[in-house]
Specification:
Layout (H helix, E strand, L loop, with lengths): L1 H23 L5 E6 L5 E7 L8 E5 L12 H7 L3 E5 L15 H5 L12 H14 L5 E6 L1 H12 L4 E7 L11 H7 L6 E4 L5 H10 L5 E4 L10 H4 L4 H11 L1
Parallel strand pairs: 3-4, 3-5, 5-6, 6-7, 7-8
Antiparallel strand pairs: 1-2, 2-4
Helix pairs in contact: 1-2, 6-7
């Protein structure tokens, strides 16, 4: 019993340390740009751990948001040794946490709710950008809300490049293709997968987790937090299962 309690306390202290270290390094990133196959210029923030052999996590925001969604999240991941690329996709705007404008959205036509597949070329371009940098021993996909569904599709099409997927508040958001996200999830039979959601979103996201065919998968339902990656800003305790999963795959 004592050993279990000490182990839990140690895990919590490790997470608190990483968050503190991440917040201290909050502004250490480089803004980069690259083009998708349509010629659209995409803006992203590159966070480096100064170790090019470590995995790269590509961070995609929720609808109406921007790369600014990860201003406090990416540094925590970097403090644990990961490299990160926080991407502005065209389905965005000014994030509501730090007020960072989405520069890709400013260059593109508006993406309506439910037509999220139009954003997919932006995700592919982000993956190709990381591959061209020849950084890290593998690529981890991280999606929030609408992008939490598209990372399943991206992982399916680029299985050889992806070592893990984290999906924050996925759902069957594609109105004209009901059930398609579950089909993508069902094909992830070898890629480790972590699925979580807001405290009241179990009915939204748990069915997609159940569809994941990989034996190495984790579902986490938090007590606090509303939607997407922002659950990590709502409660520091939500970091623990995320870091536990990541440290098994890096």
């Amino acid at each position: 019993m004592k050993k279990t309690v000490y182990s839990l306390l140690f895990s919590i202290l490790c997470v608190v340390f990483l968050i503190s270290a991440g917040y201290a390094a909050e502004k250490k990133f480089e803004k980069v740009t690259f083009k998708n196959r349509e010629g659209l210029v995409i803006t992203a923030d590159l966070y480096s751990s100064n170790d090019r052999t470590r995995p790269v996590i590509i961070l995609f925001h929720q609808y109406g948001s921007s790369r600014g969604e990860y201003r406090k999240i990416a540094p925590v991941l970097v403090a644990d040794g990961f490299n990160c690329l926080a991407v502005d996709t065209r389905a965005g705007g000014r994030d509501r946490w730090y007020g960072i404008e989405n520069e890709t959205t400013d260059r593109a036509a508006k993406v309506e709710l439910g037509s999220y597949l139009k954003v997919f070329p932006d995700l592919v371009a982000s993956l190709n950008y990381v591959k061209k940098q020849k950084t890290g021993t593998g690529i981890i996909l991280w999606g929030s809300s609408f992008s939490a569904t598209l990372v399943f599709k991206l992982a399916n099409e680029y299985k050889d490049d992806i070592i893990a997927v984290l999906s924050f508040s996925p759902g069957e958001y594609l109105r004209h293709s009901p059930g398609i996200v579950s089909k993508w999830a069902s094909r992830l039979n070898k890629i480790p997968c972590f699925v979580t959601c807001g405290a009241g979103e179990e009915k939204l996201s748990k069915p997609l987790f159940d569809s994941v065919s990989s034996a190495n998968k984790t579902f986490y339902l938090p007590k606090l937090g509303r939607h997407g990656s922002s659950i990590l800003m709502a409660d520091e305790k939500n970091w623990e299962p995320v870091m536990k999963f990541l440290n098994k795959v890096k």
